[in-house]
Amino acid sequence: MRVIVEADGGSRGNPGPAGFGAVVLDADTGAVLSEANDYIGVATNNVAEYRGLVAGLAAARDLGASDVAVRMDSNLVVQQMKGIWQVKHPGMRALAREANTLRTCFESVTFEWIPRERNKRADRLANAAMDRATSPAPNRPSANTPGGETPAPAWTPPAGRPTRFVLVRHGSTIHSAAKRFSGRNDLPLNDVGQVQAAALAAREFADASAVVSSPLPRARATADAISARLGLPVRIDADLAELDFGEWEGLTAAQVRHRYPTQWARWDGSPDVPPPGGESFTNLTRRVHRARDAMIAAHPDRTVVVVTHVCPIKTLICSALEAPFAAIFRMHLDTASVSILDYFVDRPPSLRLFNDTSHLQRIGSLLS
Length: 368
What we know:
Elements: E1 2-11, E2 16-26, E3 32-43, H1 45-62, E4 67-72, H2 75-81, H3 90-103, E5 108-113, H4 120-131, E6 163-169, H5 174-177, H6 191-202, E7 208-213, H7 217-230, E8 234-236, H8 253-259, H9 261-269, H10 281-298, E9 303-308, H11 310-321, E10 338-343, E11 350-356, H12 364-367
């Protein structure tokens, strides 16, 4: 029997209340043969995705399948199961071993990354599992720590070092100086932005082991200045690009409210509504979470300098704090500012610093 396994998992907080979903389909007819989902307590997105994979493989085994094609929208899990990326995170090693053990039950197993929109069945099941519980069950084991231990209370010292994100907003451009919507453009840093990038490079980034940047020129130029000082290469991640503002690109908020009053009201009230011809915050969140999970997996217990834009930084902070969507519009981020998030294996993330521009004070006269 040839089957397709579609699997997914999610966490509202990363780590936070988490669940997985898995669907087994007949490869010839597309008929649904089995579905599984469950709420797993407090866990990370990656752990939940692995739990979905394990559940899907187990269901395929129980159906007597011989050939399995696994499809997931987690590039991290797919690349690790292909053996291209190592499984470095201790919380996922046991799950990866379990999935590899299940692989031996079949004559062949293939792994394919698919976009989230093609994985809606498993995504729906995972969200249904999370919807069943708005908070982790107090006596239920968590899957985000080795051995499934219950996470320690947040006020106790963590078991190990966090993965630290030093979130850097790029330097100034003509759009940011004029407070215009600035999304997928190729604007360079202006004169002020270049001075800001130099000031960022002179800042102390203790124990930084990697520099990851949005591909857009203003972010890349800022990252290049920092990386040259640190002696580290810059890795580009397209998922860290700014929100696509579509027809609003280059306009001020006042201009948008005047020209697009209905669309503005809908966009301001829902993360699912994109600007005309642009991108929704829901889509932005999915890709920023994908970038976050890949960086945590690639640099466990290390410090990563992440050079990106206003909306990705605010999205990461809102997710870490489990803040509502409206909080996006209640935070201010200066150009060339620094914020810090710590991600732990055994507890929720911690916001350590927000919108710090102390490194710019030494060059105040040049910026005036």
